[in-house]
Amino acid sequence: xxxxxxxxxxxxxxxxxxxxxxxxxxxxxxxxxxxxxxxxxxxxxxxxxxxxxxxxxxxxxxxxxxxxxxxxxxxxxxxxxxxxxxxxxxxxxxxxxxxxxxxxxxxxxxxxxxxxxxxxxxxxxxxxxxxxxxxxxxxxxxxxxxxxxxxxxxxxxxxxxxxxxxxxxxxxxxxxxxxxxxxxx
Length: 185
Known about the structure:
The protein is of the alpha+beta class. The mean pLDDT is 88. Strands 3-4-6-5 form a four-stranded antiparallel sheet, with helices on one face. It starts with a helix and ends with a helix. The chain has four helices and six strands; from the N terminus they run H-E-E-E-E-H-E-E-H-H. Strand 1 (41-44) and strand 2 form a beta hairpin.
């Protein structure tokens, strides 16, 4: 019983961590990183498709992304999708290539992005704590139904707390890394 509860919460907490990483990828830093475009979908023959599935994306000179569509007729669609995104990026097209130069972050935008990263981390911590609460409630229900003893309940709660602390620590580590990225000039 304890193993199924623990594996279930580990899976859910891992998903919370993955969601945090996805949200952090949307927060741009001064450096070019192809993953910033992961959330942008382009209309590819009637299907909303991630840009990285329609083009080769690479980094040039540290602050410039180079996008080379596999189907050259998609250049206009990719440009439109980037402009419509809320990332504040301006694509420049030259022939078969789209280039995006990452603007340098001002101190004000840097602070705004750090605040946004902290909010995302807090949302992730809340999600993890909610998973802990649900697991503890499930264990208490099992104990009330006499499916587990009070000692087993205490062991489950201790393991759930240990797992929660581990994942909260991972969130803190991710936040610290993102803040360091944003603080770089």
